[in-house]
Structure to design on (226 residues):
């Protein structure tokens, strides 16, 4: 089963062609960037196709991160994945950025819980906590950083994601410090493909996952009467 996995949710543009049956990566590319995903993604996928010496008719499914993440970045990845799925008639599987971030450390050692945390700004985080076997201990949610620290400091844990260092800075006194803090992590498209292979497409739609409303809202007083 060949999966094309796409991630543009955060400060990187990444894609991978991965055969999940043999656990073999045919091609992968990850470029750090805060902007420019729209201009980068399609040429990147073209390079992967050339490197793997394959074409779209060999792809069995598409996987894409659905958030949380930047509004523009999410739209780029989702639009591309949906377009590819529509053109080929193949399923498109959407998976959360937080679950994709947590997958590699859980695969290394799942006896110690992993907290995936993303910086949502203004002392807020997007947080999800996973235990043994990928079991969800705390569902994906937006939280104040202090509330998040109190919620996840239940014993030895590992932190991953752009909000990991912020979370560690607010760790409650008297609780065991995090065993590791990986604040540089961005979703790995190979792991995105692996997660997609075991996901139910009917329960993993390619729709954006927003954990809070937009920061900018129209002012009622400025609205034109209709």
């Amino acid at each position: 089963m060949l999966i094309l996995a796409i991630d543009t949710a955060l400060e990187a543009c990444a894609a991978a062609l991965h055969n999940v049956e043999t656990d073999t990566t045919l091609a992968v590319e990850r470029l750090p960037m805060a902007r420019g995903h729209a201009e980068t993604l399609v040429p990147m996928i073209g390079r992967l196709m050339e490197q793997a010496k394959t074409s779209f008719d060999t792809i069995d499914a598409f996987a894409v991160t659905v958030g949380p993440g930047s509004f523009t970045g999410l739209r780029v990845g989702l639009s591309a994945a949906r377009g590819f799925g529509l053109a080929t008639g193949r399923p498109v599987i959407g998976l959360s950025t937080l679950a994709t971030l947590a997958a590699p450390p859980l695969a290394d050692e799942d006896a110690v819980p992993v907290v995936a945390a993303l910086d949502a700004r203004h002392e807020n985080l997007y947080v999800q906590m996973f235990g043994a076997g990928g079991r969800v201990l705390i569902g994906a949610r937006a939280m104040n950083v202090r509330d998040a620290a109190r919620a996840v400091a239940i014993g030895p844990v590992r932190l991953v994601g752009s909000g990991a260092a912020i979370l560690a800075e607010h760790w409650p006194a008297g609780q065991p410090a995090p065993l590791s803090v990986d604040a540089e992590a961005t979703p790995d498209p190979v792991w995105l493909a692996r997660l997609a292979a075991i996901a139910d497409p009917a329960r993993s739609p390619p729709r954006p996952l927003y954990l809070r409303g937009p920061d900018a809202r129209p002012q009622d007083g400025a609205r034109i009467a209709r």
